[in-house]
Automatic annotation (TrEMBL):
It holds the Pfam family Lon_lid. Coiled coil: none annotated. Residues 12-227 form the Lon N-terminal domain. CDD domains: RecA-like_Lon. Signal peptide: none annotated. ATP binds at residues 376-383. InterPro entries: AAA+_ATPase, ATPase_AAA_core, Lon_bac/euk-typ, Lon_lid, Lon_proteolytic, Lon_Prtase, Lon_prtase_N, P-loop_NTPase. This is Lon protease homolog.
Amino acid sequence: MSFNLFQFGEEAPVLIIKEFIILPVAFGRLTLNYGKNTGESITLIEKEFWNDDNWMNKILIVLPLTADEFDRFQTSDMKKKRLVVENQIGTSVKINKLLARSNPKPHFQIFMTGLGRIRVKSLRHVGEYYKVRYNHEDPKLDVNNLPNSVKQFQTEAQKFIKSIRTTLSSRTSRQLYTTIRATPPELYPDLLASFLELDFSDKLDLLRAIELEKRFQIFINIYQKKAQLIPHEKRSTDNFPLTVLRKYGNFDDIDNFSRQPSPTKQPRDVMSKLRDRLEAGNLPPHAREAAEMELLKLEKIQSHNPEYHVSLRYLEFLLDLPWSKSTKDSVDVKKARLDLDADHYGMDKLKKRILEYLAVQSLKNDLRGPILCFVGPPGVGKTSIAKAIADTLGRKFHRISLGGVADQAEIRGHRRTYIGSLPGRILQGIKSVGVNNPVILLDEVDKLNRGVQGDPAGALLEVLDPEQNHSFVDHYLGITFDLSTVLFICTVNMTHTIPPALRDRLELIEVPGYTQEEKVEIAQRYLIPKQLKKHGLETQHLNIPSNSTQILIANYTREAGVRELERQIATVCRAVAVRIAEARVDESVETFNLDSVAIEEILGPTIFEHDIAERVSRPGTATGLAWTSFGGEILFVEVSKMNGSGKLTLTGNLGDVMKESAQLALNWIKSNLASYRLEWEPSTTDIHIHFPAGAVGKDGPSAGVTILTAIVSLLSKQPVEPDLAMTGEITLRGMVLPVGGIKEKVLGAHRAGIKKVMMPSKNRKSLFEIPKSLQSQIQFVFVSNIPEVIQIAFNGRVKPISKL
Ligand SMILES: Nc1ncnc2c1ncn2[C@@H]1O[C@H](COP(=O)(O)OP(=O)(O)OP(=O)(O)O)[C@@H](O)[C@H]1O
């Protein structure tokens, strides 16, 4: 995946949704049913919120589209999807409550509060849903220079509020006034509109009105249009607004608004509360001094001054930080061993290293030491084992995803002089867990980007360096905060993209992909019980025998880890939950046995077919093995020739090293044409080599033997042996050199149904990494030069003349 260096703004998951709007400062409730068209939204909510302990602190973007735009989005490719959503206006929201229900059919209920308008800058597909980068679109109202529409609005709004008030209890009406006072004036149209039953198009006009003059005018038009719908004689009576007032449900929710201070009057109790907190908090001297200074400054600023809010937010953040709150460690290596074994199958090497680490640190009575970094494909349990470490130590856990971060301010905060400045993610995380010694997982450190906004890896170095991190300065906070008691753990998918200076500080520990047998064990022991519990099912409700788990793994997933498998098991559990909920009426609930027929009924026909033999049945194609950040995978190489002038064309998003391998292969063949009796006139023939799946970037020298085999296959008109996959680097003189990632490649080959793997002789020693169960299912052949490659790839059907 590549990132544009010039993408600014924050990133958050996005719910792209047809004709549903939540306005800033409004409450909204959204019901998401499990259905064909809601798969992406459901996965988003499950992964980003339901399965994440930190969901309360996350931002969701709700992006409303018209029916027309939505259809266009659904039916187009990624490029066109981007055109549909980029530059659109949406709302950033905070989810207040999330309910998963299975009655009458499975659905999520999401209760949320709109925070502000945003403009989408760019769209990114992450697995099965989308994320957007966005900018805030919050122009402020200049109170000294009000546009005309705002003045007109003030009169209309007063009428409106007065009439609403008569229909409300005195308590609710007080709350309403508090809410209005607490809302910045530029958001008044949104606030009042949230009390009206509005059409989608009216709401959309209002949402998309960034310019304030226009926004106020739109509200006035909407309000007046609503008023005209009411018969004249009723209009003058006080109950007019009731007829247009939305049935708002729980009016008490309005209380939640009142967390902001009044923009027109400086509430005295805000100051005294802050002072009380300052006195009660056990702040170190330098933080106390900074807080006192800020408090003095705040007392002097009028509350309608924009500076007031900036200063108040800063002070609240400073006081919220857990300067002296920490949890007590319980480092007990025996217990840690049991805890890790209790939720994680296998992973012996990793567990051993973690226990050693804990043992050493407990002897030193200090958890400072090398920074552990777990390396492996997605879904192999890197995050969940880090969480288990936190649990066994009795520490709080916080995860920070760094994928695609290109701005050092994400780590170290913005200086307060910036409008909308925020603290960095490290301190935000520490604030959210409420203690200063959590385990912080820095996820996807290998996907940090260097952007125009500074180098985030440099900032991270400071965070991780034990020499420096006791006096870490976040630009927003402006004073030092001691990070030395935080236990940092990093995860990466691949090592070569970790910024080099950072790699130096990390102790890399490999977490490899799983074999089919290991996956069955993980599913039977952990994933199935976990999902049953999550869906409110008992073991007597659903039986998944291990041969059915095998079918799920082989036919419905293709991954190195077990994340997709867990998702498929969750789908099965949901389907069974529905059956049980429906069956309850006549009270007979039998154990549901998941056999192959039931699997197909619930999950549909097999997703992955083993079609390799068919793909390589024609001359000119060969199957290679590649190592990617998702684990090992098979990779096809296709070659064709045409009349021309001896040109070589390479397609399929290749890196330079891979292009060089192709050139090497071709040159070796040119110099050995005669001895293999290959039909080719280089000066009048063009050769085209293509690597399918052009969207995925490919590089490295290990495809050399595969490219060579595919070309020989084309020129000799002989198909390559079916069920054979290969890897190895070639040299111009015909040698085959060893390559890396053998274990992942072999696991990938096995997943794809390959029966025979050809690899360089020098890689023979890598076989010890491969589980015994796999060694008996795959035949390994070793080669040290190109003639041997050709001999094995064609099973003796292509031979050099000299050996005839
Ligand atoms: N060995 C294992 N035993 C039990 N459960 C496992 C094991 N490995 C993975 N899992 C489960 O698989 C799921 C996915 O794991 P997790 O999210 O930790 O993967 P990850 O390696 O961190 O992936 P990513 O790199 O995408 O963040 C979790 O529910 C985890 O508990």
